[in-house]
Amino acid sequence: MGFTVGWLSLLLWGGAYNVENLRAGFEAVEGGYVEACRALGFPRLAAFRHVTLPIGARIALPSVTNILISVFKNSSFMIAISYPELTETAVNIVAVTFRVFEMFLAIGIVYLGLVWLMSLGARAIEGRFAIPGGH
After folding, report:
1. CA distances from 73 to 22, 70, 88, 105, 114 (A)
2. What is the distance between the alpha carbons of residues 56 and 74, in angstroms, rounded to a whole number?
3. What residues contact 9, with CB distance under 8 A and at least 6 apart?
4. Phi then psi for 47, rounded to 5 degrees?
5. CA–CA separation, 51 vs 36, rounded Å?
6. How far apart are the C-alpha atoms of 134 and 125, rounded to whole Å?
7. What SS3 string covers the chain?
8. How far apart are CA 111 and CA 5, in angstroms?
9. Tens digits of residue pLDDT in 37-68
10. Mean pLDDT, range 68-91, rounded to an integer
């Protein structure tokens, strides 16, 4: 039950932010692109699919990946609903070994390493989908 509540709450929190990020990305697409599609006879859905979606997704990609990294970091809050995640496991080990500094240094390094890898992956994806010439 705790796992379901945890992933559902993280999904809703991150999803709400990412929906707003995508909406802002789609709204940032210049109106001239959509007008050009309409002038060429594209239906609204085709104009969205072929023009607004790719450009808007490129615009929103940095903020979307930022929220995904935040969702990962906020997974440590699942301790509040008694779900045994990394932080709670560290607290349980500290209760037995009394090695507070070493344990929290270790999980800090794990979180830092995973977030660093996620941001490298996000940077690679952003570079792959970057618009040539910077526009």
Report:
1. 21, 5, 14, 16, 10
2. 26
3. none
4. -65, -40
5. 10
6. 15
7. CHHHHHHHHHHHHHHHHHHHHHHHHHHCCCHHHHHHHHHCCCCHHHHHHHHHHHHHHHHHHHHHHHHHHHHHHHHHHHHHHCCCCHHHHHHHHHHHHCCHHHHHHHHHHHHHHHHHHHHHHHHHHHHHCCCHHHC
8. 22
9. 999 999 999 999 999 999 999 999 999 999 99
10. 86
What is the C-alpha to C-alpha distance for residues 124 and 122, in angstroms, rounded to an integer? Answer: 5
Residue written as token pair 């794990």: 110
Instruction: Tell me the two tokens of residue 90.
Output: 């560290």
Residue keyed to tokens 């023009």: 51
pTM for this prediction: 0.80
Which two structure tokens, joined as six digits, stand for 5? 């509540």
Instruction: Return the structure tokens found at 92.
Output: 């349980």
